[in-house]
Amino acid sequence: MTRLLFAMCIPLFLASCALNSRGTLADLRDVEPELKDETIEDGLDKAMQSYRRFLEQTPESAMTPEALRRLADLKIEQEYGYVQEGAKAAPATAPATTETKATLEKPQTVTLPAASAAGKSAAETGLVAATGKKSKESDKSFEKRIAKGEKLPPKDDALAAPTAEAAADLENANAREAVELYQKLLDRYPLYERNDQVLYQLSRAHQELGEVEKAMDVMNRFVKTYPNSRYMDEVQFRRGEYFFTRKKFLDAESAYKAVVDMGKGSSYFELSLYKLGWSLYKQELYDEGVEKFVDLLDYKVSIGYDFKQQLSQSESQRIDDTFRVISLSFSNLGGASSVVEFFGRYGKRSYEEKVYSHLADFYLDKRRYSDAANAYKTFVGLYPFHEVSPHFHMRMIEIYQKGGFGKLVVEQKKEFAKTYALNAEYWRYFDVKKRPDVVAILKENLRDLANFYHAGYQKSRIDEEKRDNYREAQLWYRNFLASFPREPESPALNYQMADLMLENKDFGDAAAEYEHTAYDYPAHEKSSAAAYAAVYSWRELLKATPEGKRGEVRQRSIQSSLKFADTFPEHEKVPAVLSATADELYEIRNYDLASKTAHKLIDNFPKAEKELIRSAWLVVGHAALDQTQYAEAENGYSHVLELTPPGDKLYGKVLENLAAAIYKQGEQASQAGDHKMAAQHFLRVGERAPNSSVHVTAEYDASAALIKLEDWRRAATVLENFRKNFPASKLQPDVTKKIAFVYRSDGRLEMAAAEYERIERETKEEDIRRGSLDIAAELYRQSGATEKELSLYKRYVKLFPKPLDQAMDIYYRMAGVYKRAGNMPVYKDVLKQLINMDASAGRARNERTKYLAAQASLVFTGDAYDKVVAVKLSKPFKDNLKKKKQYMQEAIKAYTKLVDFQVGDVTAAATYYIAEIYYDFSRALAESERPTNLNAEELEQYELALEEQIFPFEEKAIATHKKNLELIQLGVFSTWIDNSLDKLAMLVPAAYARKEESSGFIATIDGYRYASGQHADVTLAVDGRRSTGKEDANNAVEHASTVEGVQ
Amino acid sequence: MKTRNPVTELFVPHALPARAVLLCLFVLLTGCAGSGAVRPQSDGAVEANRNDADGKARQDGGANEDISFYENRSIDQAVREDFDAALALLRKQKYADAIKLLQKVIQKTQNSAPYINIALAYEMTGELGLAEDNLKRALAINPDHPATMNEYALLYRRSGRFAEAKKLYESLLATHPSFMPARKNLGVLCELYLNDLRCALDQYETYSNALPDDKEVKLWIIGVKQKTGG
Do the chains contact at B71 and A1006, CB–CB below 8 Å? Predict the structure, then answer.
């Protein structure tokens, strides 16, 4: 048979017996002995046989009582399987190691009851977590459990409460034999030195046999006989347990007190002190009982017990039980106030808070919420700066919550928030960083308060209540954010606060808080949503702001929108926000930024809704148009049209704007003098927007630009098309004029003339009609279309016989036509008609009629002059002389008559011709045919005489030409005077031959130099009679203008 | 930013000794370095060199000063070639062709010279109105151009606008007293058309002093004196 047996040997056993070992039977219960698996066949039996043989075979000696005792002990051991302390002497059960002895010295571990399933105490787990986790054991059960006595080894149970089964079990021969052996020993050896031990063992044996009363008798005998026995504490404790379980609390008190009085050296001290407290409690001596319990706790503290780090579950249970009975006691004494009174009297304790917390839990178990909260409140009131006070405060709040005291919960949360706010006095005693637990609670409270009032605000139906809730919610939100500005949850709280403000329609505040949430925290999951909400809030504020006061709000709204778009381009609302912002910027005439914003949308969000893109392009177009950036405007409108179906209402309007943008580009180019570009733009209006209202004007202006470019052909094409395409245009008359002008400028004179004729037909104003006919006739003249020219003159004088002077002008030109055609009779007829018209003009006669009549008359006097010149003084000399004189007189008379017209130019001509008649006569005399019958001398005389005849006429001619010069002083100057001067230059060169000096052609395009002290050695002939003649112009280049050294 | 003075930069009057040249260079350099030391001159402005050999301002009214200046010089080579070709046509009396070519030139650059030459060409063809139009444009580009002013005054005289001719001559001579053709022309105007013999005599004498080798004008002086009985 294999059995577990302590490896021990008798010498060792004996040695152990010699020691003052104080182990008991109960010691073995919790001992974890150092065991060896060793097979010893029938070890106990052999030991007992050994002792029995010793007693039987050995004469009675001093060892006999010892052998008797050991044999009795072994029997007990064999019966119940454990060895009492006395059995240690037995060789077979000798302890193997010192560790075993050491373990055995911890009686409390032996005697403590098995650990309950109770969780940690509230103090250990944190008060907040303690609720509901405490043992469900009722006070009654608790007291009942205590009343059973301390749970000793199974064999000891008989001492506490003997039962029938136990009694039956005790029908055991070995135990009986042991009792007999112990009794025999006491009887035969009354002076045996270890009889206290024998009595002790005897009482144990009785107990094992269920003979409790006998055991008590033995123990009572023991107490009386061996007051100083080393087994006294255990025996007294057992006696105490006996009395306690039989509710003989006074006796129990005495027994326990005896142990306690033995002092802390007893291994039963702590347990006895505990049971002493209970004994007093059971006698309703609560105050005294509490004192014992507090003594027990003091003792625990004194031996280094750490309430927070219990190593033993059973010990923890007992401490917990101690606090519980203390709570029961104080509850009976009057609650929290009695605690205050007790410690006031008994002195403060380091674990005082646990007393309060247990008391609170005690009340809480009984749903005495107010008392429970009051317990915490009392402590917090006493020790506001105790490290657990925040927890107690919070516990108090939880109790109120549990009790359904909502109002109190809120009040206390607010109180908590004030008391432990990060700027509160509490933190003068604690380092915030070392109290994350408190900070966490504070944070939670602030958040709860904010949420509570926020929810209250949402539920409120009464304005005043709503206002109050709003104010409170804001207050706590702000408190939270002020205390925890950089916590991970801060952005979310900030966002909630902004939401609250938005709900309350405090749009400005909401917007500011949303912006703060969006931009002033590190990126968080609500950043972009907050940014968008800010934009939304600004816009709501804008709507709510009266017109006229929106400036600042609008600016903020725009700034927020732009920042949102820049910061969170991935947000789905960015395109819409950019679109709306661009619109607003345009409305406030910030065109530049409006355009940039619109471009931001267009460039960065090409996949945005088509409508948004179109709107952005519309802003680009409008902004550019207002900024006179017409090319950009055209670009914008072009894109809008691409995105707009032709049937859309917008289409036509945008098309108009597009046309305007293009047209304006033309205007700009025109103003800059770039007519080519202007024409291009004007013509593009028709290409891009042929149905636009500005098309007509653009076409017209295009022609004007082309005219300025002198691009006659294109101008003509544009104008001709205009005439065809816009027949109803009011500009048609002007177009006709332009066409006429263009044709004329292009050298298409006859076509131009036809246009002027058209003008005359299309116009009602007489002046214009007259002018048009005039020009048309002139153009026909220039183009050689004489018949058409003549027909127009006739039409003219028929249509407009008045004013007379203008009609006479036309007649005068008509005369010119006939003259050019060589139709001299008609020519002169017309001239005569002119003279007659002037003569009969009456009051219509004026300078012009006189001039024209004078000019006409001059033609006829010209005939007289021609007749004079035609007559040469040749044979028959006298006849010819006579004829010439006659003609001279007639001519001079006619020219003199012309002077009567008092027309300067004609007078000058008449004067010139009169002078020329004299001069002609002098030349005629000089060139007259000489007599052929004269000798040399006579001929010389003749020449001299002739010379004398010639000279006066020459002098007369000079004098008459000089007379012509006098007209200059009268304000008259004409070519006839210049002709006279030329003549005088020839006749009197010293006085009149004066060559003016031209600068000549300039030889260098970009420079000029005139050298001092030089003059033009070849003068440009501006007046042939006083210069080297026109032919010299060929050489009259660049003397004075030659630039040296340039280029 | 300073504007370079093209006149002082490039032109060194013939009469000036090396010392004056150095002075001009100095003026140029200080003009570049300082502020306003040399008056910036826009294209087309006329600058007569008024310094004598010692660099001091002359006291004789500047009758012997040279006149030289640049106008816009940023001209394409092709435009220059057109201008030169037009000049050749003028020399060959092909005025219409010359005018057409010069009108092409003025599309590309706004300088006085092509306008003056167009005006002279029109005078040759007797189209005084067109001549005047072009002289007006030339004057608009450079109101102090002596050739333009002289031609314009001659045109005034030919069209009987003697007072305007005289005023323009006087203005020209106030700006460019050394421009002798104008002085002679003013004398003729005064003598033959305005009958202001005193004026004529003054102009002829000034002219003759400046150009003593011109014997013809000396005779004119005698003629005027005879008219005045002097």
Answer: yes
**Residue in this structure with the two tokens 């609170």, named with its chain if needed:** A360
Tokens of B64: 């012997």
Share of chain A above pLDDT 90, in %: 54
**Quick check: bond before A154 cis, omega within 30?**
no
User: How far is A735 from A799, CA to CA, in rounded Å?
Assistant: 25
Query: Is any Cβ of chain A less than 8 angstroms from the Cβ of B69?
Result: yes
Backbone dihedral angles phi then psi of residue A1013, each to the nearest 5 degrees: 80, 15
Across the interface, whether the CB atoms of A1015 and B181 are under 8 A apart is answered: yes
Tokens, residue A503: 């709900």
Residue corresponding to tokens 């020993």: A185
Give mean pLDDT, residues A143-154. Answer: 67
Largest Cα–Cα distance in chain B?
Answer: 62
Residue B75 sits at the chain A interface (C-beta within 8 Å): yes
Contacts of A973 in chain B (CB under 8 A): 160, 162, 193
Q: Which two tokens stand for residue A443?
A: 């944070």
Of chain A, the percentage scoring pLDDT greater than 70 comes to 85
Strand order in the sheet with A1007-1010: A1007-1010, B67-70, B47-48
CB contact under 8 A, B83 and A1016: no
| Closest Cβ–Cβ partner in B10, B70, B146 for A1006 | B70
Between A11 and A993, name the one with better pLDDT.
A993
Among partner residues A978, A1013, A1033, which is closest to B210 by beta-carbon distance?
A1013
Put simply, the answer to whether A1008 touches B160 (Cβ < 8 Å) is no
Q: Search chain B and give the residue with CA nearest A978.
A: B158
All residue ranges of chain B with pLDDT < 70 are: 1-64, 230
Report the alpha-carbon angle A599-A602-A605, nearest 5.
130
Supply the pLDDT for residue A929.
Answer: 87
Residues of A in contact with B179 (CB under 8 A): 1010
* DSSP bridge pairs for A1040: none
Task: Tell me which residue of A667, A661, A666, A665 sits closest to A641, measured CA to CA.
Answer: A661
Is the model's pLDDT at A689 over the cut of 80? Answer: yes
**Running DSSP on this structure, what letter comes out for residue B211?**
-
- Residues 181..210 of B with a Cβ closer than 8 Å to A: which? 181, 184-185, 187-188, 191-195, 210
Which chain B residues are closer than 8 Å to A1010 by Cβ? 66-68, 146-147, 176, 178-179
Rounded Cα distance between A457 and A497, Å, is: 12
Burial of A508 (0-12, 13-18, 19+ CB in 10 A): middle
Q: Predicted ipTM?
A: 0.78
What's residue B170's pLDDT? Answer: 97
Residue A229 to residues A83, A86, A265, Cα–Cα distance (Å): 20, 14, 14
CB contact under 8 Å between A1013 and B64, yes or no, is yes
Q: DSSP per residue over B65-120, as a string?
A: --EEEE------HHHHHHHHHHHHHHHTT-HHHHHHHHHHHHHH---HHHHHHHHH
Name, in order, each residue with C-beta under 8 angstroms of B137's C-beta and a sequence gap of 6 or more.
B106, B115
Size of the A and B interface in Cβ pairs below 8 Å: 148
Interface residue of B135, B192, B227 to substitute, partner A, most A CBs within 10 Å: B192
- In the predicted structure, residue A357 carries a pLDDT above the cut 50: yes
Q: What is the pLDDT of residues B72-107, one digit of tens each?
A: 888 999 999 999 999 999 999 999 999 999 999 999
Band the pLDDT of A171: cuts 50, 70, 90: low
pLDDT at A28 over 90: no
Whether A994 and B87 lie within 8 Å, measured CB to CB:
no
**Integer Rg of chain B from CA:** 20
Please report which residue ranges of A210-248 form alpha helices under DSSP H: 212-225, 232-245
Widest Cα–Cα separation across chain A: 236
Of the candidate ranges A47-51, A368-372, A600-604, the one whose mean pLDDT is the lowest: A47-51
